Structure to design on (426 residues):
């Protein structure tokens, strides 16, 4: 019940126009290339080929633009999560798919993890609250459902879904948060597909064994 | 051997004068009260009761001051880690103590986690490299030693110590990184001692079971 309420938040979002989508694509492309959020509205406009007045028209300001970008990610990711929960597979298979889903999302959009933190810590309380509603609460509801299923199937211990959220997402995101350490620590220039696969396997093993009764 | 080399970096640091220590205490106190690093040298001087010229004298600039604060933390934490590695107890007991050690360090110094990330991502490459040398490499060497001991004792699988570093530290630090989510998600105003204890127990169970052969 909690799950449906949280997930339905996502579905009420209005569809964006093609120009708004183009502006979000340009923002995503620019953020993927840098390690900070110091990107100007005129840079985004230039990259998109559109007038920067359109950013104000659609999103109000940079915070509104970032929030809309996160909302687009949330719609994709939460759709995927909803399908996952409804799949006729065991709870451990669901969690395995979810772990590679999170790590792949961070790998595809290297700014995603930092942007979620940035919006929660530094944005206006309304934006911060929105990020909590669109990402964190739906994920915890999904964890609750998967844990319940796993306990019923006799393959999981009962754990607090909110604590599992912090520990699991922290495990998945730390390697992306600390990209400057990759070269000195792991001796590769960036997170390659091979490293990503090894990390998915590592986190899956720890978490799945960690939840066994 | 790798471990001793990494740990010895810490021991060569020179002792700081009483005034320098006072300035670091004032910096730590101010950072504990805020969620950003926008703290001015004059605020730090005022809080310490010392002249701000002393900050320049001892540390050069704010980045030098922050780095010195992290070095002081590193000395304490790496001393504790060195003792832990040498204790005549089993590998799982060592890892349990270590997990509560990390979570307690973040709980005592709420800025510690953010400051490590900030210095790695936003500081000059020399500072960023220093943080990697003083925190991350010694920790991975310790993990290597504990994993080897656990494998010999038949209680751990062999896992990559660098990947364990990212997944374990990510698990421990995410709840502190996301302090603004605590109230809406966990329904307490801040990370209380009770919540901290529950989180330590949660992470310990996941990681210790996760490493079992």
């Amino acid at each position: 019940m909690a799950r449906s309420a949280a997930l339905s938040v996502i579905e009420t979002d209005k569809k964006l126009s093609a120009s708004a989508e183009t502006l979000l694509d340009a923002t995503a492309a620019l953020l993927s290339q840098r390690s900070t959020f110091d990107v100007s509205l005129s840079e985004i406009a230039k990259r998109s080929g559109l007038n920067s007045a359109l950013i104000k028209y659609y999103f109000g300001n940079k915070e509104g633009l970032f929030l809309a970008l996160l909302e687009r990610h949330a719609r994709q990711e939460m759709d995927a999560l909803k399908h996952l929960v409804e799949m006729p597979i065991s709870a451990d298979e669901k969690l395995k798919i979810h772990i590679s889903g999170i790590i792949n999302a961070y790998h595809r959009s290297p700014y995603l993890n930092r942007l979620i933190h940035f919006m929660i810590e530094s944005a206006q309380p309304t934006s911060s609250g929105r990020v909590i509603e669109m990402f964190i609460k739906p994920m915890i509801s999904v964890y609750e459902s998967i844990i319940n299923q796993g306990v019923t199937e006799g393959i999981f211990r009962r754990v607090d879904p909110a604590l599992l959220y912090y520990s699991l997402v922290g495990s998945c995101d730390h390697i992306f948060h600390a990209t400057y350490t990759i070269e000195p620590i792991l001796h590769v220039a960036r997170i390659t597909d091979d490293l990503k696969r090894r990390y998915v396997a590592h986190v899956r093993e720890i978490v799945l064994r960690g939840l066994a009764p």
